[in-house]
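HUMAN: Now follow token order:
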Amino acid sequence: MKIPKTIKIYCKKCNEHQDHKIKVTKSKKARADSKGTRRFQKKHKKGYGGKAKFTIKPKKQTKKPNFTAECSKCKSKKPFSIPKKMKKVEIV
């Protein structure tokens, strides 16, 4: 799906509609101390190298893309997402 580089949406800081630059954001590295990571390591890294207690579900092929919209006037950033799941995102 092709997405334009600029979209005119509402800016809370300016209190009016402004042109926003759109950038694709990627997920960052997971925290080592988070509860999910600790649970995963507790189940997988213990014992004598036996099989894990549960099998990991396959990942979904398509995900909802996340964008950051930056206001051209005040430079404030806000998360912006499109509700559809897309395989390939192309900013034009």
